[in-house]
Amino acid sequence: MFRVENIPQDSLHPVLLIEAPRQLFPFARRVLADATRDGGYPPLLLDPIDFVDLYRRNMEARGGQSEQAPAGDEKPN
Prior knowledge:
The protein is mainly alpha-helical. Helix content is about 70%, strand content about 0%. The protein is elongated.
């Protein structure tokens, strides 16, 4: 869906997980609201999403899991 050029490798992950959804979300939100309204129901309005905060929390959770993973993988003898 996205063509990404001239983005440093270390910035690619945030661009794809923050900027890409930020661009798509308003359209998806509108399609969902229109579909429910056209189906005879009140429009389903999704709250805005802070993709930066979501990305940060996800990275923090992954960081905690990756640090704990080796200890959890150890098997008692």
